[in-house]
Amino acid sequence: MIFQNSIVRGLGALLVLASLQPNTSQATEQLKGPIKLVVPFAAGGSVDALARIVASGLEETSGQRVVVENRPGAEGSIAAQYVVRSAADGKTLLMGTTTQLLWVPLSRKEPPYNPATALKPIGMLGESAFFMYVNASIPVNSVAELVAFAKANPDKLNYAYGNSTGNIAAAQLIQKAQIKMNAVPYNGEAQAITDLLGNRVQVMFATTVSVLEQVKEGRVKALAVVGSARSPLAPSVPTFAESGMSAVDLSPWAAVFVPAATSSDLTDALSSALVKALTTSAVETKLAGVGLTVRPMPAREMVTFVPNELKKWDGIITRAGIVKD
């Protein structure tokens, strides 16, 4: 489990915040002027929605204008590399997800960057809701029934994914259950949702909470949620572990980063502003609405968190049998 005891973490975050306050006045002066939050996916998606909520909260707590800039492509590595190469002045932030920070460097023979050394964390935002959906026409209502159906109908199910978490979750399920499904990759989740509704793909691993509206309408079924706990957005949907498939053990998260050369004073000031934003009820409520369970983790805690996650995901990718590009 990535996150344990959110209350303790929240209190820890506030203690770190309090300890930072006396030392950030000079850094606050250096941060005057617009701050850019770079999003690795196109506008209109779930990560973009998350970033805009965070940007609004940061504006309130930092006192600076925060502009969202979308730089999609190459599984988010275009945005990540842009931030890596940016000036280390605290003015360019990366809205990071597990795709750019873990999947990209671990799934390629020649990684474009090492997130543990090329980027410096500002703070964790939280854990994302990530579901496995099936078209309503498929006669299954649980993960076990899907596995049985796939075994009885080999290669007749097409599964969609628009990001790395979906890709790995599907690979884990296929390997553990010893089933066959045809992979249909997408550059994002929007077109995949359209194809799921049209039954061109029958299974989809996705973060997009808008699909839950289709679940309510009976057009799609949500069979399980990836992560350590059920999502407040759909509390009746079990986790994969509860469904007897503990091998699907990802916990997708989101965090904010800056170039590695950014000074500790600047990262502390930004971390302080971020923790303040995340601990306001208005921001937390809005983030919950887009499928994020807020779990604040200040910059100094994340220094060890990121390398540990890289090690964990490396093992997951290897066990899932995913071949590096």
Automatic annotation (TrEMBL):
First and last residue of the signal peptide: 1-27
Pfam families per the UniProt record, alphabetical: TctC
Keywords: Signal
Domain of life according to the entry: Bacteria
Keyword Signal among UniProt keywords: yes
Cross-referenced SUPFAM superfamilies: Periplasmic binding protein-like II
InterPro entries in the cross-refs: BUG, Bug_dom1
The keyword Signal is annotated on this UniProt entry: yes
Record-stated family: Belongs to the UPF0065 (bug) family.
PANTHER family given in the database record: BLR1237 PROTEIN, TRICARBOXYLATE-BINDING PROTEIN
Name of protein: Tripartite tricarboxylate transporter substrate binding protein
